[in-house]
Every structure is written in structure tokens, then in C-alpha cells.
Specification:
Largest sheet: 5 strands, mixed
Radius of gyration: 23 Å
CATH class: Mainly Beta
Strand order of the largest sheet: 5-11-10-7-8
Structural class: mainly beta
Shape: globular
Strand content: 35-45%
Helix content: 10-25%
Oligomer: single chain
């Protein structure tokens, strides 16, 4: 009888211990979901899904943001002489050589505006809901598409190879506060037809992607703590929707010419405008 009671007591203690461990795991997951709900973490970004469809770099800062009712719109002018971009030397790879390309470091549009500028509300000043889909980096015609896009911290990033050749995805953490010091994050081969690579943007400010096989291939993901950002396209314009009312500092980031700022005030259900201008004499990064 005594041994039976000891066995019963041991069984009860073991059950309580296992139950406590399970509760602890559930609490940890719950805290992660709470962080995501505050706009600092969960998947989002509004990239196109699947196949060779080109992602939309503006989607991360557009209608997916539902934290407010205001809008910030504007454009990024280029007032200097547009630099001539050199032809890329792609002959070493027969597949890449089929399509002629020029460098895309500085792309000035026909209306004298600048492409591939990410405009955002300065980090650390506003919270907002995280988008629900991952952003997507596409390797198409031996180029990264889009070249520049934004992500929300902890958002998933999927990298797809749509080319009939092998790429390798080499990502770097660029620390702008340390004169753009770069630290290698991962370097993974991705042959044609290979599965997508999935990573996340948590813990970084600026991620740089390149291909060591094709050194002209470059792409950037600017990481934010909110979804209020957009990237200029072929007309140099940007539009950020769903912005909460308030006064904000806007940042415009360009991979070669750096950062410019502007102040805006957004009323409830109102709109604000901002115009940035680069002249080509800015200190190159």
C-alpha cells in the first residue's frame, strides 16, 4: 500500500511538471503575437505572390496600412544632370547575355524625377499594423526585382529564382550608423527551379542583396518599425495611405545619394504633400 501511494504521488508530480511546461510555451507564443499586433513584428509587405510576377514595391506602404485615415503623397525631383549609366557586362553567362541591361544605381525618369527612392515616416515615431503577407524578391533577367522595397521588422522575405540559370543569394546587414559597414548574413546557392528561400527582416535596418555569380545584381530592403512607406517608380511619385493624424518627419532614402528629410502634418482623414529634390552633388554612399 505504501509503494502504491508513492507511485501515485510521483505520477501526479510528473503531470503537474509537464502541464507547467506546456503553459510556458503557450505564453511565449502569445507574447510574439502581441508584438506583431503592435506593428513591430509579423509578416507583411504586400508583395506579389508566386511565379515570375513582379512584386510591387509600393504595396508595403499603401492600402494595407489601416492604422489611420490620412494620406501623404508627393514626388522626388532630380534637378541636376542625369548621370549616364554604363552597359552591364553580362557576356560570361549565356542566359544573362540574351538581355542587354544598363546599371541601375541612379535612374532618372523622363519627367526629371528619381526612381527607387524609399520614402517613409521616420522610424520610432509612429506605430502601425503590420501587413499580412511576406515581401518577395524576384530574380528576373539576372536582375533583382524590385531593386528597392520596404519591409516591416520580422516580416518574412521570400526569394525566388525565375531565371534559367543559377544564382547565389548573398545578403548583408548594412549598418548605416557605422558608415555603411556591412556584415554578411547568409550566402545560399539557388539553381534554376529551386525552392524559394525564406528569411525574415527582424533586427536589421537595411538589407543588401547581391549575387556573387553575377556581381551586377543588387537589391535593397529597407526595414521599418511601421508600414508607412512607399517607393518611387517611373513617374517619381509616392503615396502613403492609412496614416494616423499627426506631425511627422519624412525620410527619403536613395542607395547612392543618401537621405533627405521633410516635415509634414497629417489631419484626420486629411492629406499632406511633400517634395524632395536631389541634384546629383549629394555625397555618394
Amino acid at each position: 500500500m505504501h509503494r502504491s501511494k508513492l507511485l501515485l504521488l510521483s505520477t501526479m508530480i510528473l503531470a503537474l511538471a509537464l502541464g507547467g511546461a506546456a503553459c510556458g510555451k503557450k505564453e511565449k507564443k502569445s507574447k510574439k503575437r502581441d508584438t506583431a499586433a503592435q506593428g513591430g513584428g509579423a509578416a507583411g509587405g504586400g508583395a506579389a505572390a508566386g511565379g515570375d510576377t513582379m512584386p510591387d514595391p509600393n504595396a508595403g506602404g499603401g492600402a494595407a496600412a489601416a492604422g489611420g485615415s490620412g494620406t501623404i503623397a508627393g514626388k522626388v525631383d532630380f534637378t541636376g544632370t542625369a548621370p549616364e549609366m554604363p552597359k552591364l557586362k553580362r557576356e560570361a553567362d549565356p542566359f544573362c547575355a540574351k538581355t542587354e541591361m544598363t546599371a541601375e544605381t541612379v535612374l532618372v525618369n523622363e519627367n526629371k524625377t528619381l526612381r527607387n527612392v524609399l520614402v517613409r515616416i521616420k522610424p520610432g515615431t509612429v506605430k502601425g499594423p503590420a501587413p499580412t503577407e511576406p515581401i518577395k524578391i524576384e530574380q528576373h533577367d539576372c536582375m533583382y526585382r524590385p531593386r528597392v522595397q520596404g519591409a516591416v521588422a520580422e516580416q518574412e522575405i521570400t526569394i525566388h529564382n525565375g531565371d534559367q540559370t543559377t544564382h547565389n543569394v548573398h545578403a548583408f546587414d548594412v549598418r548605416t550608423a557605422e558608415n555603411n559597414a556591412e556584415e554578411s548574413l547568409f550566402n545560399l546557392a539557388q539553381p534554376k527551379g529551386a525552392a524559394e528561400i525564406t528569411k525574415d527582416a527582424n533586427g536589421y535596418d537595411l538589407m543588401k542583396f547581391k549575387c556573387d555569380v553575377h556581381p551586377w545584381m543588387l537589391g535593397y530592403v529597407v526595414v521599418n518599425d511601421h508600414p508607412y512607406f512607399a517607393v518611387t517608380g517611373e513617374d517619381g511619385s509616392f503615396k502613403i495611405e492609412g496614416v494616423p493624424a499627426g506631425k511627422y518627419t519624412l525620410e527619403a532614402w536613395h542607395e547612392h545619394y543618401g537621405v533627405k528629410t521633410a516635415e509634414v502634418e497629417v489631419a484626420d482623414k486629411g492629406s499632406a504633400e511633400a517634395t524632395f529634390a536631389y541634384d546629383g552633388t549629394e555625397k555618394a554612399l
